[in-house]
Amino acid sequence: MDFELTDDQLELQRTVRDVLAQECPPDLVRAVTEGGAADELWDTLVSLDWPGLTIATEHGGTGYSWVELAIVLEEFGRAVAPGPFLATVTQFASAVRAVATPHQASHWLPLVASGAVTGAFAVDEGAGTWLLDGVSAAATCDGEDLVLAGTKRYVLDGATADEIAVVVRLDAQLRVVVVPRSALGVDAFAPIDATSVHADLDLDGCRVPVDRLLGEGDATEAISAAIDEALVAISVSTVGTCQRILELDVEYAKERRQFDVPIGSFQAVKHKLADMYRDVERARALSYFAALCLAEGDSRAAVAASMAKAAAGECQQRCTQDGLQIFGGIGYTWEHDLHLYLRRAKVGELTFGGASQHRQRVARLTLAGGLA
Amino acid sequence: MRLHNDSATEAFRTEFSDWLDENLPDPAEATERPHSSADTPAWARAFQAKMFDDGWLVPAYPPEFGGRNAGLFEQLVYFEELGRRDVTRSFNPQGLGIVGASIVSFGNDQQKRDYAIPILRAEMMAALGMSEPNAGSDLAGLTTRAAIDGDEFVVSGQKVWTSGAHDADMILAFVRTDPDAPKHKGISALIIDTDTPGVTRRPFADITGPDHTDFNEVFFDDVRVPRKNLVGELNDGWRICNGALAHERAMLWIMWSQGLDKMLREFLSELRGTAKADDPVVLDKVGKLVADAQSLRLLGNRQLAKQQRGLVPAEQSILKMMGSEAQREVALLAVEALGPAALDQRRVPGHSSVFASDKHVVTWFNRYLFGFAGTISGGTSEIQRNIIAERVLGLPR
Ligand SMILES: Cc1cc2nc3c(=O)[nH]c(=O)nc-3n(C[C@H](O)[C@H](O)[C@H](O)COP(=O)(O)OP(=O)(O)OC[C@H]3O[C@@H](n4cnc5c(N)ncnc54)[C@H](O)[C@@H]3O)c2cc1C
Predict the structure, then answer these.
(1) CA-CA to B175 of 20 to 30 Å: which in A16, A100, B204, B236?
(2) Entry pTM
(3) Looking at the structure, do residues A67 and A200 belong to the same domain, yes or no?
(4) Could you tell me the residue range of the domain that residue A139 belongs to?
């Protein structure tokens, strides 16, 4: 294999980093955290055609592979970029692409690519595992309409997205229905990280035309594949955030002096940073491997996605904990930017199943012969 | 980025794989086992020599040293094929990988002919004399003294941990030739034949059992070593310590990666179908280790890809630490999963091929203990963390 970015990919990485340094500085993240909006950032991303990065050119996208998407997501995580990108591109669009008929895809994907529609993906109903056997929300046919019942929880951008891809049961089959947010009861969280706001959704009594039901027949496998894409996206974005925490810590450890020496000369600090570095590199490698499996349609994609999610979870745990400890008192202030990163890193772990759940999935898939 | 190799690399794999099909010894003949890391059974000597002669021993070397000037990814698939079949190249790994490699890199023509090639062809067994009772992690603090007397060195002092020395024909010893210079600058590398008068080797058992004698104390009492046995320049030995693995440095991670894969494979095959295979605590740990193994392979591949592009990769520093620690973890998990059954040393997992080098480390408990060989020798895990912090992250010393 060739496991390093190509020159073009490195160029993309530089471009995205430059754009975000300009358009999404820590001040913007802080402003959002203190109640502000980031609409201009989204407008900029739309003007750069980034929402359509991996959408096929026939649907108005750029047609890049999942590796390019991973590059962008890592930079978004690094900058703690707020806004609808993650949920729209890596959850809503993934679900639509995986499940929809070609005709439906040609309706929805161009809307995503052009930035006309933002989206979300509603799966979990309270177990916090995003496992499909926990889905009991139901759709029933009533003439030309579908009538929904049940609740969805922990939906990223559930309170703000235009359209929500909702996983439901219909006649014992798992299906996805695209529902306008305005048709749902929405209960938005007071979030620990204001750059990624989750919401609970009440489906009861919601009525949508039947052509919003995606695909034909049971979509369990396609939905799982879409969830795997969401996992990889969260992982690589978490890697970016943790990379930034590591950089901030290393900088600080060189600068801050106590006992007449930089604190970075103390071995207790050095070894923490060495372990953070290892965990970031490990999680990054596994995240890009998963992205590469998605890009090439490799059969290891599912186990790779869970390895990535588990590794990102382990990485954020170390980077948030030791990352804050190394800063001492200054890191414990609202004024210091560190907490912006810590919050974002933690959010990823708490959604779509935590590290332990994914380690167990990796083990089960491997025992069953999934990573030969 | 792509998942698969180009066809030329795969053709190289096929060529080597075919060669192995043709030339691997008959397992029925490979019954004699080595009893130290410098003891190579006759069948294994013959096989190693055959690999050398056919240019398959160290593919990165030119043909005169048993290679074929192979590229980085060719070397990778070569090791993958060896690993897949659980075949070891040499039962004197420090001879092939460090002593022989040092002489190929730094020795003169005569030393290459008289030592490097015989070591590579398994006609001569080698030991590595670096560590001393007071020079372990702080290797540059070594005090074994070599004074110049005419065209000889007179060596006195002591080495310890010298793996396989009692079965070795020669020791590559790092000695102090300038006691007045700063400590890294007064060291030289000498080839010392073990039958030279004044060399005493005292083997002693390691933690895995009283019969497992690989370690040695080696005493030098006014040992006279001809000046022609100096490898490289006088007082330039530190460079050799650091550059000893130059030819296959890019491939070092493979050893950790394959060792880990193998242990994991064996553990999973034991676990499958047992009640523990449904135990969430066990599964949680298995998942972590599977991810460790995969990330090691990925980081190793990324290192190669960077080298291929002419970049200087930093991955190396984490691979040894990750690999050795993960190996120890797999063995520990296996011990814990076996529970009381692990108490009985007669319980021996029978997976290793007859061509594998680790036949002596059989029970999971011994494998766990052996795991510490990885985290202690060749730069402890703590030293690796220092290196990452200082050289990769740039923190002050
Ligand atoms: C199986 C095995 C085979 C070996 N084979 C050989 C061989 O063939 N030839 C040879 O020359 N040597 C050999 N060695 C020796 C090996 O290289 C040394 O054991 C190793 O370098 C550590 O040195 P030490 O044992 O003196 O431990 P020490 O250096 O005394 O270390 C003791 C503890 O202190 C820690 N420590 C030391 N310095 C630091 C520091 N700066 N920062 C943080 N922690 C520190 C270490 O990490 C360790 O935990 C072998 C060792 C083993 C276990």
Answers:
(1) B204
(2) 0.97
(3) no
(4) 119-219
Query: pLDDT tens digits for B142-193?
Result: 999 999 999 999 999 999 999 999 999 999 999 999 999 999 999 999 999 9
Within 10 angstroms of residue A213's Cβ, the number of other Cβ atoms is: 21
Distance from CA of B278 to the nearest CA of A (A): 9
What backbone phi and psi angles, to 5 degrees, belong to A256? -70, 125
Question: ipTM value of the model?
Answer: 0.97
CATH code at position B141:
2.40.110.10
Position A2 in a domain: no
Atom index in ligand 1 nearest the CA of residue B165 equals 8
* Contact yes or no for A135/A125 (Cβ under 8 A): yes
Q: For A98, what's the count of Cα atoms within 13 Å in the CB-facing half-sphere? A: 28
B335 touches chain A (CB under 8 A): no
Q: How many CB atoms lie within 10 A of CB A149?
A: 16
Interchain CB contact of B84 with A (< 8 Å): no
Query: CB of B234 within 8 A of CB of B195?
Result: no
Nearest to A286 among B295, B306, B384 (CB): B295
Asked if residues A161 and A212 have their Cβ atoms less than 8 Å apart, the reply is: no
Q: Which CATH number goes with the domain that contains A128?
A: 2.40.110.10
DSSP B32-62: PPPSSTT---HHHHHHHHHHHHTT-SSTTS-
Query: What CATH number is given to the structural domain containing B39?
Result: 1.10.540.10
Say whether both A99 and A158 belong to one domain: no
CA distance B268 to chain A (A): 7
Shortest CA distance to B364 belongs to which of B380, B347, B377, B388? B347
